[in-house]
Amino acid sequence: MSSLQNIFLVARRDFDQRIRSRVFLVSMVIMAMLILGLGPLLASQIDASNTADAIGVIGQPPYAAELEGSAGALGIHIKVVSVPTRSEGETMLADGDLDVLLDGDVTIWQRSISPYVNAVVIGAVQAAAQQEAISTLGLTNEEAMSLLAPTLPENVVLEPPEDDAATRQGLAYLGVVVLFMAVVLSGQFVLLGVMEEKSSRVAEVVLARVRPMQLLTGKVIGIGTLGLLQLSVLGGSLFALTKVVDVEAIPGLGTWTGQMIGSLILWFLLGYAMYSVLFAAAGSLVTRQEDVQSVSWIPMLGLLPGYFIALIASEDPDSTLTTIASIFPISAPMVMPVRAAGGNVPGWQYALAIGLCIVTAYLLMRLAGRIYRGSMLRTSKTKIRDAWRAAGPKQSR
Amino acid sequence: MNSPVESGFVPYRVTSSFDTVDFMLSFVGLTKRYGDVVALDQATFESPAGRIVGFLGPNGAGKTTAMRCVFGLAQPDEGTVTWDGRPVDEADRLTFGYMPEERGMYPKMRLSNQLVYFGRLAGLSASDANEQSGYWLSRFGLADRAGSKVDDLSHGNQQRMQLAVAVVGHPKLLILDDPFAGLDPLGVETMADLLAELAGSGTGILFSSHQLDLVEDICEDVVIINKGRVVLAGNVEALRSQSDHVRVEVTVDGQPWTPESPEYVPASRSVRGGNFIIGNHVTMEQVKAEAERSGSVSRFSYGPPHLSDLFRSAVNHE
Fold it and tell me: A37, A214, A298, B273: which could join A6 in a potential S-S bond, CB 3.0 to 4.6 Å?
């Protein structure tokens, strides 16, 4: 039997066993609930940006058409509400049902004057006055048009805001939290799975037929596939959510999801490839749940600094620290996606970061593999040094 | 019950023999040190196909280390383990079954899944692994527990399951580290029957044990190891008959009797006295004459020493 087949068998066992486990199901339910929780949040965002300003007019609204026209010219969404009496209108104003109330020549506000709504009202009043003047003067249609439609100045913006970079980085921040959680969660699964094989002593039976590196690789792949599935469910439901809720209304979100999910999966794979073997080495040192804390610092020592730098990077994506940390392989999986969301990463830096991660993953696999080989067949808690020595070059097979 | 056996359909039988039966596992000059401790010291012995070899030795003699070397779980400092004359490789190991001293299975995995998994690791196809999983579960009376987890089994059933894990794939060589430990008398009998059956099909079996009577009953060959060195090896009957000692039992005046001369040693497991081992340079006539001088001899029997006597003398000479 080829070693690939062994790795496949081990990977499938770990995948099959864990996908049925309670911990996995619970974590999936929690994720699903988080996504569902995002729905109303997104919807409220969309409501906020879509809410029409309500303009109350007492009696038959004389300016309804002018108000609509004026608002349309200014790009503001309004609705005109007919209000029977002034006192009723004031009540509606107080309740927030109206933004402004027009009573003849008087414009009534609740607290402050909204410049946008005010501009709409002024425009409408002026238009009505002009209309009246035109009919009084008895002008022809052409004369009226030239009077009412003066040439408007063209707008030129010297520094247009960058295509919603801030929004995307905010979302990248969210993405890093998810990425970090996914790597740690999958890593913990690897750690516990390795510890279970050591403490139940099944390792000796398995290792009689499978090389240690095959068992390690199979486990990492099996649990990694599960992590990827989890992440895909999370990303996929987010994607589905954006199709249901009209995300186009939120600036920057529309173009985000597809790209973001792709980046998330790429950096999850790279981060997981590096850290899962460290979690495995940590798990191979202990046999009891109580001792897990005493070894899980090994992978966390590498993961946490990158995570914190990534959180800072979402504020300041172009600092020197961020640039270095986004290429340095230990922190790159956390920092690079945030930096890249800002859109200012040269292609070579991105490629270099990926390349370094792959090389580091290989080196860590060798290092962690040796600790793993040296400690799996020991029946008790093992020191790293002893494991390292026990699996000297002579011991490898 | 719809297990293969109950339904009268047994797709797989252990009695199907191997085509060639001349495999041989050889330990050649195996030496292994752990720091200052010498676990194996130039150990050389064999375990042939179709034979049951008892692997004996005091605790810490190096039995487990030697067995681990077969599977590459320990690397000898010197020497090799060969199969069919070549150093054991990975493909060979797939045809070996192993039951380690420290029993181990996946605690949360269902029995049937577990057997299929280990069968697949032994190189069986998915359908063969399923078939054999069903066969061995029925064989060990675990067919109705196929869906249970190992954690939920009784101690005895866990032992049976552990053996099933070792034999799934019908190994050409079976290495069992103390397989009889913790078994009740019925369990011992079942295990012994199965080993005989497997040996009959051509499987070579090497097992360690401290139960010397059992080994004497079951095994054709023994290897006795002490402090990492092989101190006695060969066919049990030949070793007994070729021994330069005789096991004697004498009753004088209704009491167990032993000679005055310092030549003898009490026989092993001679709780009541009256059993002793004496070098064969002393003739039975001499012993009988000495006994008759002490009183009336009602019982005088002698024969080759038991395996336990050989064991003790081999280990004590070291």
Answer: A214
Confirm whether B84 is domain-assigned. yes
Of A1, A197, A204, the CB nearest to B123: A1
End-to-end CA distance of chain A: 16
Pair type for strands B52-56 and B221-226: parallel
B17 assigned to some structural domain: no
Q: How many H helices and E strands in chain B?
A: 10, 15
What predicted TM-score, i.e. pTM, was given to this entire model?
A: 0.76
**Final residue before a domain boundary, out of B174, B207, B234:** B234
Over residues A300-350, the pLDDT tens digits come to: 988 899 898 888 877 777 788 888 898 999 999 988 888 887 777 888 999
pLDDT tens-digit series, residues B238-260: 888 888 888 888 888 877 887 77
- Please check whether residue A159 lies inside any domain of the structure: no
Secondary element (H or E) of residue A128: helix A115-137
CB of B182 less than 8 A from some CB of A: no
Q: Which two tokens stand for residue A222?
A: 């099996």
In-domain check, residue B12: no
**A155 burial class (0-12, 13-18, 19+ CB within 10 angstroms)?**
exposed
As for the ipTM of the complex, it is 0.83
Q: Give me the CATH number covering residue B200.
A: 3.40.50.300
> Which residues in chain A have their CB less than 8 angstroms from residue B71's CB?
207-209
